[in-house]
Amino acid sequence: MDSIHVRANLDESLNALTDELVRLSSKIDTAVDQAMRAYSDCDVDLAQQIIAKDANINAKRFEIEERCLHIMVTQQPVAGDLRMIVTAMNIVTELERMGDHAAGIAKLALRVEEVPKRDIPNGIFQLASQCRDMVRRALVAFTQRDAGLAYAVADHDDSLDNQYRMLFHKTVAETRDASKSTDHLLSVLFVAHNLERIGDRATNIAERVIFMTSGKLTELNV
Asked: Which pTM does this prediction carry?
């Protein structure tokens, strides 16, 4: 097989790999969105669906990892192509763990289902919106090989962390109010923690995109 055909086959494999990651990231985005709805609405059925689908996300992770290994073994990628595959393996791990965080939020919806209708701080929905946006932009940075956008994702994590800290301290202060449900306030803290961790994982993806485009491993937001 001549070099042109080898290159074409490798490009086709890498494009298919990218498409798989984009589809998985879309499933993660949906899982986080639905988990927040299940939590805010105390929707037990939706929460159980999200938890059940987490096994599918885990299986997809291993499937994509096997695809990566197959490409490395059979097509012998070098330089930038090899960095792209290694980056894909790291990204799929981060996405799978984001799915775990979404399932964690859904499990909280089950625990608070019998708590009377409660106030949920707007800050928690802002956290969810921001972390979802970070994940989407991190994947765009990956698909477009855009290191500048990857750095922007990491910069946005500072804002997310600040919002998380403000919400954390405000919620902890409310636990001193005897009229507030401690169980509910603790659930708010756990949901916020899961969302903050999703933002951290988006930053991890951004770091890997920078590695893919430059060959340099850079730890952001230390």
From this structure: 0.92
